[in-house]
């Protein structure tokens, strides 16, 4: 299949790219600069130029940003991952909401207008678009699934960066489903909703300074930043980046994935468990880690919400890696880039 992948330089997209190539697909990926395109190309020396092409899309928040990039003869599928995921923002609308929402509607409009051969579109959404933050993490009687939607409003969205990020994913995913309903394009849509994503980073794009947001907590643990207290975990459910990347690829390959949301989670985790996995597997890092009796990072005593990932298992056939495998491979990859 010929597949367009937006944001090929991202943590998750780098793994999607590798699985697409392994499955024999041809990939056209958008990045923000030629420098990033060159790094990705150099890291795939055995991939023929005809199987991996690049398009420069500098800012997905600009109307029409994908109009030219998406013009690819015989394009069959699109995976849209690009969206800001960080909390270092001064203007929630400009820095988070616009790139997420305009980026998503922009790529869908561009496909409809300029790539009529596309049959399948997959968008990376998030557990952020499923969770109801008003209920707290100890909503023990509730089981989250694809049926749930975050009720966040436009007013709440701009109150702080954390609300802003969750709203950006919720509004963007809603806009995508509305687009399909109203515009009735030639393609079907699937959305992929992961909670915290951890796992190995690719060496060719990363350093400690440019580390993606969701791996930051593990980097903090191994660089001595949590020696006196482990921070609260936050969402308490996670998935491995390689399992998530495979879910994206399966969602374009399997016809039965069309018209569905997928809640892709491996299960519960806590920051304390991550620390203990590192202690067990990397004795040389002991001096950087919080001591065993340091407070914080545990599960809440009141319990946690439940989750239902059965659609991801049944339809996409995903078998989830263990937290231990994911953390060990992440730490090794961080050490490989000098963290
Ligand atoms: P990264 O920060 O590694 O990737 C984000 C990607 O989006 C990068 O390629 C980035 O380009 C691109 N991007 C961001 N803003 C713009 C913009 N204005 N114009 C063009 N490109 C832009 O994060 P992840 O890989 O973790 O995130 C990928 C997707 O997964 C996002 O949609 C995110 O919301 C979602 N997600 C991530 C989770 C996680 O825990 N990691 C959990 C749930 C969902 P550049 O690198 O050049 O800045």
From TrEMBL:
Transmembrane segments: none
The NAD-dependent epimerase/dehydratase domain, residue ranges: 4-260
InterPro entries attached to this UniProt entry: Epimerase_deHydtase, NAD(P)-bd_dom_sf, NAD(P)_dehydrat-like
Any one Pfam family match given in the protein's UniProt record, by short name: Epimerase
Entry GO MF terms: oxidoreductase activity, acting on the CH-OH group of donors, NAD or NADP as acceptor
UniProt KW keywords: Oxidoreductase
Annotated family: Belongs to the NAD(P)-dependent epimerase/dehydratase family. Dihydroflavonol-4-reductase subfamily.
Protein name as it appears in the record: Ketoreductase azaE
Protein source organism: Lachnellula arida
Gene: azaE_0
């Amino acid at each position: 299949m010929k597949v367009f992948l937006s944001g090929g330089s991202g943590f998750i997209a780098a793994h999607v790219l590798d699985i697409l190539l392994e499955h024999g697909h041809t990939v056209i990926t958008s990045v923000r600069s030629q420098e990033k395109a060159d790094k990705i190309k150099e890291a795939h020396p055995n991939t023929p130029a005809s199987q991996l092409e690049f398009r420069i899309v500098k800012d997905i928040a600009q109307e029409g940003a994908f109009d030219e990039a998406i013009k690819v003869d015989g394009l069959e599928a699109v995976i849209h991952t690009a969206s800001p995921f960080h909390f270092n923002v001064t203007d929630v609308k400009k820095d988070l909401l616009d790139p997420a929402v305009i980026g998503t509607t922009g790529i869908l409009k561009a496909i409809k207008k300029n790539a009529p051969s596309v049959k399948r579109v997959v968008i990376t959404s998030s557990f952020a678009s499923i969770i109801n933050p008003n209920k707290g993490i100890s909503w023990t009687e509730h089981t989250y699934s694809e049926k749930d939607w975050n009720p966040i409003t436009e007013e709440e969205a701009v109150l702080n960066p954390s609300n802003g990020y969750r709203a950006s994913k919720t509004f963007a995913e809603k806009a995508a489903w509305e687009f399909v309903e109203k515009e009735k394009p030639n393609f079907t849509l699937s959305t992929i909703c992961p909670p915290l994503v951890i796992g190995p980073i690719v060496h060719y794009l990363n350093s400690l300074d440019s580390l993606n947001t969701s791996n930051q907590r593990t980097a903090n643990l191994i660089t001595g930043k949590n020696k006196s207290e482990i921070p609260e975990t936050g969402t308490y459910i996670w998935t491995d980046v390689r399992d998530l990347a495979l879910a994206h690829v399966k969602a374009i390959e399997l016809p039965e994935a069309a018209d569905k949301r997928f809640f892709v989670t491996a299960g519960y985790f806590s920051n304390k468990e991550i620390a203990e996995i590192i202690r067990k597997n990397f004795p040389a890092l002991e001096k950087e880690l919080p001591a065993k009796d340091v407070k914080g990072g545990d599960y809440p005593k009141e319990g946690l919400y439940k989750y239902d990932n059965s659609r991801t298992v049944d339809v996409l056939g995903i078998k989830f890696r263990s937290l231990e495998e994911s953390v060990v491979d992440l730490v090794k990859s961080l050490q490989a880039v000098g963290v």
